[in-house]
Amino acid sequence: MIKRSLLLLFVLSVFKAVVAQTSPAFEKGKDYEKDERQRFYLSPTRIVWTTDTTSGAIINPENLLKKGTGQADLSGAHLCVLRSASSKKPGILLDFGKEIHGGISVVTDQSKGGKPVRVRIRFGESVSEAMSEIDTLKGATNDHAMRDMVVALPWLGKLEIGESGFRFARIDLVDDNAELKLKEVRAILVIRDIPYLGSFHSSDTLLNKIWMTGAYTVHLNMQSYLWDGVKRDRLVWVGDMHPETSTIAAVFGDQQVVQKSLDQARDITPYPQYMAGMVSYSMWWVIIQHDWYMHTGNLNYLKQQKSYLTKLLDQLAGKIDTNNSEILDGGNRFLDWPSSTNTKAIHAGLQGMLIITLTDGAYLSEVLGDNATAKKCREVAARLKKHIPDVNGSKQAAAMMSLGGLMPPKEADKVISDRGVHNYSTYYGYYMLQAKAKAGNYQGALNDIKNYWGPMLALGATTFWEDFDIDWLPGVSRIDELVPPGKKDIHADYGAYCYKGLRHSLAHGWASGPTPWLTEHVLGIKVIAPGCKVISIKPHLGDLTFAEGTFPTPLGIVSVRHTKKADGTIASVIKAPPGVKVIR
């Protein structure tokens, strides 16, 4: 026994020495980065389309729907076989059931002559995108992520391909007289494996699904950085992040990917430049810093922003003329794409947004002990309120004017409520909902959520889109089917500006606004003091009979349940962790 124990100790010591020599990257203090994301494998849920299966070009495609193992073997059983001729190349389109971020894992059997077999792989957020060509007709591209490519698959092996956003994958043989034996094709979901600490459940199943879809859309975009979209734009657009960071606060709580992304935007934008060349995006950076500090209470992180924040606020405070009008310059004057041609609306929106920015900046400056900057910000914000621009019919501008205190809430609500959800937008829809809440029109906001975000779900969406227009709906097909004759293709036939046709992202985090809105206004949870040490809970159920859910704070989970009684009053059960004061 002693000899055996000594031998075991010797073997272990040798193993440790070998690891130390052959894996120096993992020694303490070495420069390497661990991926914070995890990988999950998903089998296809259905076969959407194949070429002719009666001629022997595709045999047993249903075998691809079986649960895979990720391992090639010598059994030769349960294969899907594709055979090409000189005149015909077989193809198959798989549906993985929901939009994901990642690629596919293809496991093969033995091929003729032991040679690799070339295939063309096309990813799609819709069926039509997966069936498309890279051309100028429908807008299909490989921008930001390769979604259309030719690769060689190994003999009796496995290949993992792709890093994009998709739900559908099409595989075609490329060469004449080729044969491919597929054991399995699985999607690889690459995502942060983090819990959904926040939740929402009510008497309206559509609202419940919308809340979760917004949460999942943002979760997909929490990759190495916080992106707009998992197909495109796979970039940090800090102005677009505010609905996302609001969703993260309501669902996941404090996440380092937020700070990492805010810092990246700051570090690549030397003062006095504006982030992404847009003055509004630098203002959104200030607003996000304010809201994130309120939720996390992370003073150490806020202190790291002081130098940059002070200079930026000083610069913004100078952008006012003698008529108390904003004169923001130095880049693209931008609210969102649908309002980008309405110059009067842009001025009105920026006027309101500059007030919000300077008010938030004044608060942060006081927290940081910079009373001089705080005073300047408040003085300029007060001056800006003396100039009342024309919103020129813009719902985006009306929302910003209301939230900035420039427009009576009920007047803004009239503009936003005109023709229902016509002229809504997925990004600024969040602020339209916030303005409706400020006017006390909670039921109107609930209706708008269902009437605007709901149709995307009805068309097969599992994530929310870069843009959506209610006027697109007549005669359109679902995104999870081949477009029937006489129907419009809602993905390929619509879109504008940078999202024309199939370039349009169908998983865009800025469209998640209903998720934090439902948490804040239906559950009624609003942060009053930094670190969620004080929260108010004032529910607004509208026509709901009940609503319940949870909200993550740095001190623990807050849970609420609100039930409407026969007389219309609301009975609430609230549980808050120690250290969280609840105001009702």
CATH fold assignment of the domain at 269-450? Glycosyltransferase
CATH class of the domain at 269-450: Mainly Alpha
Q: Please report which band the strand proportion falls in: under 5%, 5-15%, 15-25%, 25-35%, 35-45% or over 45%.
A: 15-25%
What is the percent of helical residues? 25-40%
Radius of gyration: 27 Å
Q: List how many beta strands DSSP finds.
A: 16
User: What summary fits the major beta sheet?
Assistant: 9 strands, antiparallel
How many helices? The count is 16
Task: Describe this structure in a few short sentences.
The protein is built from 16 helices and 16 strands.
Mind explaining what this structure looks like?
By secondary structure, the chain is α+β, with helices and mostly antiparallel strands. Among the domains are: 1-32; 38-191, Sandwich (Jelly Rolls), CATH 2.60.120; 269-450, Glycosyltransferase. 33% of the residues lie in helices and 20% in strands. The protein contains 16 helices and 16 strands. The chain has helices at residues 2-22, 127-130, 205-221, 241-251, 256-267, 279-296, 299-303, 306-317, 343-367, 371-384, 395-403, 409-417, 429-438, 442-452, 454-458, 514-522; strands at 38-42, 46-50, 58-59, 80-83, 91-108, 117-124, 148-153, 158-173, 179-191, 199-202, 525-529, 534-537, 546-553, 556-564, 570-575, 581-583. Strands 1, 2, 3, 4, 5, 6, 7, 8 and 9 form a 9-stranded antiparallel β-sheet that branches. Strand 11 and strand 12 form a beta hairpin. Helix 4 (241-251) runs parallel beside helix 6. It is elongated. The model has no long low-confidence stretch (mean pLDDT 94).
